Amino acid sequence: MSEPAPRDTGATIAAQYARRDACVDAQRYSLFDAAALHAYQERLRAMRGLWRAHGWSGLAGRCIVEVGCGSGGNLLDLLRLGAAAEGLTGIDLLPERVRAAQRCLPPAVRLLEGDAVDAGVVPGSQDAVLAFTVFSSLLEDAAQQRLAAAMWRWIKPGGGVLWYDFAVGNPRNPDVRGVPMRRVRALFPGARLSAHRVTLLPPLARALGNATPGLLPLLSACMPFLKTHRLVWAVKS
Asked: Rounded distance, CA 152 to CA 160, Å?
């Protein structure tokens, strides 16, 4: 009997992302949407809090890579937080996403198209590597392990991986799987981990947000069990 074909090749993941992009309602992720705005602000505050707790007062002089950079929104946030454009690198599988990032980012930001494992980032060169909703799209353990090992090689001692991803699965979306904390520990066994649950259950947040946006921060503060994602700072000692 022949072995089943791997599900997590670069081509299959790129097709998966393209399929998802084609059917997503862009308005759902617009910052004019109250739920999207709240999720974005909560995540940004949590990022800043994790880095400040780590002793960073800003991102000036830091070298940072984002795996799965999409159209460049997170890289723009890093610029606003004080990172220099020449210290930033974005990697994405889809050429149309890389082109979109090129249109909105300064030319000094380095943008690479292709599989991050083969990106050729210099080992020990990065202060941080971002992976936002990347590992939940890798359905095979071996693919997750290859990417985690590559990212870990890129990081300087004292730097870390900033991870934002689904903590729970979505039964309506077979292209993603939730990543529990024990799996994060297994992927980065030598890391010192700090984690926060973030992002209210999106269908609930959308239902409430535009009608009663004041409820979102209240629910976020009082009902952490309604949060679907986890933000993790995994530090290389």
From this structure: 8
Rg (CA), the chain: 17
Per-residue pLDDT of the chain (237 residues; tens, 9 = 90+): 444 445 565 566 656 655 555 555 567 789 999 999 999 999 999 999 999 999 999 999 999 999 999 999 999 999 999 999 999 999 999 999 999 999 999 999 999 999 999 999 999 999 999 999 999 999 999 999 999 999 999 999 999 999 999 999 888 888 899 999 999 999 999 999 999 999 999 989 999 887 888 889 998 988 989 999 999 999 998
Assigned domain for 9 exists: no
User: Using alpha carbons only, what angle is made at residue 103 by residues 102 and 105, rounded to the nearest 5 degrees?
Assistant: 65
Domain that holds residue 178: 26-236
Overall domain count for the chain: 1
In a domain, residue 169? The reply is yes
CATH code of the domain containing 203 = 3.40.50.150
Task: Give the Å distances, CA to CA, from 33 to 22, 51, 71, 230.
Answer: 20, 27, 19, 21
Structural domain includes residue 204:
yes
3-state secondary structure 55-115: CCCCCCCCCEEEECCCCCHHHHHHHHCCCCHHHEEEEECCHHHHHHHHHHCCCCCEEEECC
